[in-house]
Amino acid sequence: MFVDAGAGSGKTTALIGRMLRLLLVDEVPIGAIAAVTFTERAAAELRERLRTALEREHAAGAEAQGLIDDALDGLDLAAIGTLHAFAQQLLLQHPIEAGIPPLVEVLEAVGSSVAFEARWVQIRSRLLEDPTIADALSVLFGTGTKIDQLRPVITALNNDWDLVESHVLANPTPPITVPDLTALVSLARRIASEADTCKDPEDKFVPYLRALGAWAETAGVADGLASALLTLQAGVELKFKYGKTSNWKDLKALKTDCGDWQDAVVLARQRILNTALRVLVQWCGREVLDAAHARQADGQLEFHDLLVLARNVLRADAGVRQSLHERYRHLLLDEFQDTDPIQVEIAIRIAGGAEAGEADCRDAYAHAPAGSLFVVGDPKQSIYRFRRADIAVYLDARAVIGEPLSLTTNFRSSDQILEWVNGVFGQVIQPVAGGQPDYAPLDAHRPAATVGAAVTVLGPEPHVLDGGGRLYADQLRAVEAEDVAAAITRALHEGWTVFDEALSEWRTIQHRDITVLIPARTSLPMLENALDAAGIEYRTEASSLVYSAPEVRSLMAAARAVADPTDALALVTALRSPLFGCGDDDLWSWRAQGQSFNILTRVDEDSGHPVGKAVAYLGSLHRRSRWLAPSEVLGQIVHDRRMLEVAAWGPRARDSWRRCGTSWIKPARGSTWSTVGCARTCCGQQHKVRKLPRPPNRCSRSPTWTPSGS
Questions:
Q1: pLDDT, tens digit, for every residue of 247-282?
Q2: CATH architecture under which domain 2-104+303-407 falls
C-alpha cells in the first residue's frame, strides 16, 4: 500500500493504525514487522505512540488481550528505527555473507569526520609520492591548483563510494602524452605574418600579431609536458583587439582567424587538463574504494557503509533475501519522499524474498506478497536531494506499488492558514513529468484561532532610509529583525490563541509557542539585538548557530592551544578571551619581558603575571592531556575556568549552559580520538554539528532556528 500523506494529515497515525491491524487483526508477531523512520526522534515517537495505543486497547478490554500482551512484551526489541539502524541489524544477522566481522562499530557523524581527516592526510602523502600520477599532478599544479583542492573530490567520492566502480573506474583513462603543437605553431606563424601587410606599421593591432609570432617561436621549441602546458596557457592569455580597418585587407576576417586559432589552443589545453583530472579522479576513486573495503574488513563502518553493504548482500545472496523475508514479513516505510535508490532496493528485495534477484529492483517487486510493503510519504516535502534522495525514485516506486491512497485532511493548522497555503503553493508548485507531482490542496479540520491573525506578512513595502535611499544589507537585517520583534510583542500583548493538544482547547499564546526561522546565521546578531531590546526571552536552538557564541569560541581556542602547542594564534586568542582575561597590555608586557607565547615554556604559576599564570595552566593541561579523553580535557577547561558560574550572571544562562554541555562533547566520549583530532575537528567541522539538545518544556522562551535545523 502506498499512502500520499500531506503535511499534518496524520502520517504517524496511519502507521500506528496499520501496525495495530497487523498485530491485532492479522495476528502478525511484532518481531515480524519492521518500521523504518527517517530520524531517531521519529522512531522513538512511533514506538511510544504504538505503546500508548496498545495500552489503550488493553484497558478498553479488547478481545485480543493475549496478542496485546505479546506485542507489548516484544515492543522494546521490535525493529522500529532509522534505516541505518535497520541496515545494521540486517548486517549483524548475516555478517559472514556481508563480509564483515561479527562485531562492528558504527562511527557517528563527527567520528566519521575525524576518520576522514586521518585518511586525507595519508592520501595526500601518497598523492605526492606515487610516480604514476606525477604527470597529472604537474599539469594540475601548472594551472595554479593546490593539492588541498583535491580534498572536495575525495569527499564527494567517499560520500558515494558505491558508485565509484561503475561511474569512475569503468572506463580507464589513457596516460597523459605531450601534445603535438606543430599545427598550432604553423597556423600562428601564418597569421602573424599578416602584420607585414599592414599599411601602417604603427597600427594598434600589429603588436598583437607580433606577440602571436613570438608565441609561435617559443612553442616551436617547447619540450616536455609542463613546457607545452605553459605554452598553451600563454596562448590562451593572448589578446586580439584594436586596429584600424583601412590599414588592413580584411581586419574582421583576420581577427576571426585569431579567434579560431585561440579556440584551438583552448581545446588543446582543455584536453590535457581533462585527461589529468580523469587520471587523478580515478586514482582518488581507487583510494576511496580501498578505504571502504578496509572499513568493511575491520568492522569500522560509517552510515553510508551500512546501506551499501546491506544492499549488496541482499542483491547477491538469495539465501539472505529469503531469511530476511521470512523474518520481516511486513515493512513500513515513513518519509518515503526522502528515500534514495539504495533504501528502495533494500525494502523491495526483502519484501520479494529469494526470487527478488533481478538486476532492476523494480522488476523484483513483482515477487513481493500483497500487503508486505506499507509506504507513507509526501512528495511536496522532499528536501534531501543532496543525500541522493530523488523525487523520481518516489514516483517510480509509487507507480510500481500501485495507485496511492491520499490523506489530505490537515489536523495541525487552521482553515485560514490552509487557505493561504493552498493559494500560494497551488501556483508555485507546478507539475513536471517524472520530477514534480501536482500540488494536492489540503483540507482543514481545525477552525480559525479565536484571537489573532492567521497569516501576517511582514515588510510588504520595501524598507528605505528617511531620505528615500536604499539600506545596506546590515541595516536591512536590523530593520527586519525589529519587525519580527514587534510582531512577537503584538502577539503576546494581544493574547493571540493557540490550540493546546494536551488540553484539547484554545489557550493564550506563550513564548514557547513561537518559532523564528532565519535563512542563515548572518542575521542572528541583529535578531538577538531586536529581541533583547523588546524584552523577549529566547533561545537559539539548531544548526551551527551555537558556534557563533563567544563562550564556545573561547573554549575551542583554549582546546586548540592545548592540543597544538605550536598554534600561537589559538593561544593568544584564548588568552584574550574571558577564560583568562588578559588584555593587550598584559600581552605586551609579557613579550617585553622576553617571554614567548608557547605553552611548553616552563612558567611558575606563582609568577603573578596573568599571562604567565594562563600559560602555566595550559601547559600543565597539555601534559596531562596525554592520559585524558578529549571530553575530559574540554570538561576540565569548563570546570577550571568557571565557565558555568560566569554564565549564570548572563542574561541567558540556560543557553550558555547548554552550549557548554555534553551534546558536542558526547561524540568524543569513549572514542579513540587524540586530543589534537578532537580540538581541530570541533573547530574545523562546526558546520557539521546539527543541533543541541532541546531544553525541558519548562523553558518558556521563543526558539530561533535555521530552516535546515528546523
A1: 999 999 999 999 999 999 999 999 999 999 999 999
A2: 3-Layer(aba) Sandwich (3.40)
